[in-house]
Specification:
Elements: E1 3-12, E2 17-22, E3 27-28, E4 32-36, E5 41-45, E6 49-51, E7 54-55, E8 58-59, E9 64-68, E10 78-81
Antiparallel strand pairs: 1-2, 1-10, 2-9, 3-8, 4-5, 4-10, 6-7, 6-9
Length: 82
């Protein structure tokens, strides 16, 4: 069952990184996520997360994190943990 854990607030196309605000639950390296929006819908395993250019292994509610994504995402796309 998918749990909504956050929303995309920005996307850095040159480096393929989504800025995600975590709103509920926690996210760890190795977790599988689904990013879904009007034109976005894919699943991937979280392999890299950073806060202010520092690598982190886990994030929780209220934090903003950069995650390397395999496809383009857009602001307000919803992030689910599977």
């Amino acid at each position: 069952m998918a749990e909504e854990i956050g929303k995309v607030f920005t996307y850095f196309s040159k480096i393929g990184v989504a800025g995600i605000k975590i709103t509920g639950g926690s996210l760890k390296l190795g977790d599988t996520i689904r990013i879904k929006g009007a034109t976005t819908d894919f699943e991937m395993t979280v392999e890299s997360m950073q806060i202010d250019r520092d690598s982190v292994e886990e994030v929780g509610p209220g934090q903003e994190v950069g995650i390397k994504v395999k496809d383009r995402v857009r602001p307000n796309d919803v992030v689910y943990k599977l």
